[in-house]
Amino acid sequence: MARDQYQTVKEVADRLQVSEATVRSWIKDGGLRAIDIGKGWRIADSDLALFLSSHATRPRAAISQERGSSKDDETNHGDSA
Q1: Per-residue pLDDT of the chain in tens (81 residues, 90 and over written 9)
Q2: pTM, two decimal places
Q3: Domains delineated in the chain
């Protein structure tokens, strides 16, 4: 079992280019799971990934399949020339 790495509210805010208040709001509203260890909130990488995927406009699998088919098309065009 892989161990999660934990990030501070500031680190998550910097990574997502939002304010720390926004990240704290997500935690307070229950949208983003976090752990209060006494010196502040810590967010596990897996919890952040789950939060981000739940806010995506479409599943990643659909994006991967589209990119894969585009790459196949390019490959097929290159082989026929």
Answers
A1: 468 899 999 999 999 999 999 999 999 999 999 999 988 999 999 999 999 999 888 766 665 566 665 555 555 555 554
A2: 0.68
A3: 6-80 (1.10.1660)
